[in-house]
TrEMBL record:
This is Protein Asterix. InterPro entries: ASTER. It is found in: Membrane. The lineage of its organism: Eukaryota, Metazoa, Ecdysozoa, Nematoda, Chromadorea. PANTHER family: CGI-140, PAT COMPLEX SUBUNIT ASTERIX.
Length: 111
């Protein structure tokens, strides 16, 4: 077994490069814009799905709403998230009430 003095001379750590960890301030708002972007995208796709009867837009709106909810912070406005969900769900429901056929992929006409 090696002695403590030889162990210290072979130690690759540099004590002058040690930086003490400082926890982030929990009251400071984070700068992650992802939930807001997904919320806006969800509303845009919902309106396209409702107005233009595009089923894929309605499904993308629902996906954007789910991503926005998953990435939102606990102190975000719950009314905005709920309204985004309701708008996207209504876009999906209305697009299938008007035309109940499933979505036909563009490449299905090639086969």
């Amino acid at each position: 077994m090696s002695s403590p003095s030889t162990n210290q001379s072979n130690d690759p750590r540099r004590p002058n490069k040690i930086v003490r960890y400082k926890a982030p301030d929990p009251t400071a708002a984070s700068d992650d814009p992802m939930p807001e972007y997904m919320n806006v995208l969800g509303m845009i796709f919902s309106m396209c799905g409702l107005m233009m009867r595009m089923k894929w837009c309605a499904w993308v709106a629902l996906l954007c709403s789910c991503v926005s909810f998953a990435n939102s912070r606990s102190n975000d406005d719950a009314k905005q998230i709920i309204s985004s969900f309701m708008l996207s769900i209504s876009a999906v429901v209305m697009s299938y009430l008007q035309n109940p056929q499933p979505i036909m992929p563009p490449w299905s006409s090639l086969v």
